[in-house]
Design a protein that fits this description.
Blueprint lengths: L5 H12 L4 E6 H5 L2 H5 L8 E5 H12 L8 E4 L4 H13 L3 E4 L18 E2 L1 H14 L10 H8 L6 E6 L9 E5 H11 L10 E3 L7 H13 L2 E4 L7 H9 L4 E4 L1 H9 L10 E4 L6 H9 L4 E7 L4 E7 L11 E2 L4 E5 L10 E5 L12 H4 L2 E2 L2 E10 L5 E6 L4 E3 L2 E3 L1 H11 L5 E8 L3 E8 L6 H8 L11 E4 L13 H6 L6 E2 L1
Parallel strand pairs: 1-9, 3-4, 3-5, 4-6, 8-9, 8-10, 10-11, 11-12, 23-24
Antiparallel strand pairs: 1-2, 6-7, 12-13, 13-14, 15-16, 16-18, 17-18, 18-19, 20-21, 22-23, 24-25
């Protein structure tokens, strides 16, 4: 087992160097509904409450003394982000692994792993605080941080920090264990594109229990940046007001959020430097509109299995479809042709220190995709002469219709060209005659289907043209903002159809 502690050393260094600068800024209401409000009863503010690095880590250490000592894995299922981050950090300080369960999960069996018996949820917090009050112990502002630094310095890089579940947009969620070394490697590699300057602010717009949101917090812990936990819904005016008021410099947005920004013609705040987008492909028209509004877009590409993104690049609007930037830092990408669709260059394999060791309780067929720090993804793509990576589709999305393979990404790109600014998804629906029927879902009811079918003939071969178009008011999404293809397929019969 590794005895390195690059992750813990950097945490301890940031605790010492950034002790008095903000780590977490919370909306006042969210703070008041969290355990931090009782721990820091002297904290006051009008709209936001700020917690410094020193305050936060001391609170995490204090809370760790009341956590179950016998369990190595502890479930966390909390909607309140202050509670979520402080308990996740308390587990890190204790050398335990947080199992991150979406608080709105309906099928909890899908999120169970062996060894994780205790759950910190809303009821668990109430019980926890009763124990704290009964103990008579309080957090003192003058507590010496030396013992905490020593605990951080003893963390093992190979030890688990979190188990994060994949979003399950095409299959059920899989449990991904991520270690300190995984997060450290991701941080070091991606710093080749983003500077992560101490004191700069990252506006948290993604759920913290998915890798996109959790990795924002990890980057802050390792860099001295500040996380601003504000409004997450771009449909609400507060989202843009808080970006401006807080002077946020970074934000991560999925294409559906960018679409709403463009629809409402919202200009980027002057403080904004980096807008990271990933999770689903954004069309050229959407990119052009957002750039016109001043949003500095950077495409990023990665997944839960790689502790968030491992490739990325600045977007100008001139990139070819599927542009995903370049592999960052000590990361290599290769391609395998054996199982790829005819129109693709190869299945993408990534090798980096950020790759997980494999799924927990995973089937052999899934875990065989991991080997010596490399991961065979479900994505297909290619690279150009400049080393840019392009994503062309997914092996698990390929539609077989009449014995021919159809890449949904190619059909979706054609639809987006004909319907600028409109979200589209293409899946295969079981069909007795064709095996699967190419079916398009469009987040609009403005397109004339007859005209659309005719125009698609100029862009696609006949067998690739959707045989059916389904109009939706809004796409079902997974937590990270990806279109939920499982739900589309499951609810297909109940949706309004236009043929």
């Amino acid at each position: 087992m590794s005895t390195m502690n690059l992750f813990g050393n950097l945490l301890a260094q940031n605790l010492e160097n950034h002790h008095d600068i903000p780590l977490l800024t919370l909306r006042k209401k969210e703070f008041e509904e969290s355990v931090l409000c009782e721990i820091f009863s002297n904290k006051h503010g009008i709209d936001f409450i700020t917690i410094t690095y020193g305050e936060f880590f001391r609170a995490a250490e204090f809370i760790s003394g009341f956590l179950p000592q016998e369990d190595n894995f502890v479930n966390i299922s909390l909607k309140n982000r202050a509670d979520f981050f402080i308990f996740a950090s308390a587990l890190i300080v204790s050398g335990k692994t947080a199992v991150l369960i979406p608080p709105d999960a309906t099928d909890l069996n899908a999120y169970r792993i062996s060894g994780a018996e205790k759950t910190i949820d809303r009821a668990g917090i109430n019980s926890f605080m009763s124990s704290v009050r009964a103990s008579g112990k309080i957090l003192r502002n003058d507590d010496d941080i030396a013992p905490l630094k020593n605990r951080l310095l003893k963390l093992d890089d190979s030890a688990g920090i979190a188990v994060i579940f994949t979003s399950g947009s095409t299959s059920g969620p899989k449990a991904v264990p991520l270690s300190g070394f995984n997060f450290y490697s991701s941080f070091i590699n991606t710093r080749n594109l983003f500077p992560y300057v101490a004191g700069e602010k990252w506006y948290l717009s993604l759920p913290p229990y998915h890798v996109g949101g959790f990795s924002v917090f990890m980057r802050a812990l390792l860099s001295g940046m500040e996380v601003v936990a504000g409004e997450t819904n771009p449909e609400k005016e507060d989202f843009y007001k808080e970006l401006e008021i807080t002077g946020s410099n970074y934000v991560s947005l999925v294409p559906t959020q960018i679409q709403r920004i463009c629809r409402n013609k919202i200009k980027a705040p002057s403080s904004m430097k980096y807008v990271l987008t990933g999770g689903a492909p954004a069309g050229k028209d959407l990119i052009a509109k957002s750039l016109e509004l001043g949003w500095p877009l950077y495409i990023v590409y990665g997944m839960t299995e790689t502790a968030a993104f491992f490739a990325g690049g600045k977007v100008t609007g001139e990139e070819d479809p599927g542009f995903a930037g370049r592999p960052l830092g000590a990361c290599t990408v290769t391609f395998t042709d054996e199982q790829a669709a005819a129109s693709d260059r190869g299945i993408i394999t990534v090798k980096t220190g950020a790759v997980t060791r494999g799924y927990i309780n995973g089937e052999d067929a899934f875990n065989s995709r991991f080997s010596d720090g490399s991961f065979v993804t479900s994505d297909t793509g290619y690279s150009d002469r400049e080393g840019n990576l392009f994503i062309s589709g997914r092996t698990d999305n390929i539609i077989i219709t009449g014995g021919k393979k159809v890449n949904p990404a190619e059909v979706e790109e054609a639809l987006k060209r004909l319907l600028p600014g409109v979200q589209a998804a293409v899946i295969g629906i079981k069909d007795e005659e064709w095996g699967e029927r190419v079916t398009a879902f469009i987040e609009s009811d403005l397109a004339d289907p007859t005209d659309l079918f005719l125009r698609l003939k100029n862009l696609l071969e006949g067998y690739k043209i959707p045989r059916e178009i389904v109009y939706l008011e809004e796409f079902p999404l997974t937590g990270p903002g990806k279109i939920d293809r499982q739900t589309l397929r499951k609810n297909y019969q109940n949706l309004k159809r236009s043929v």
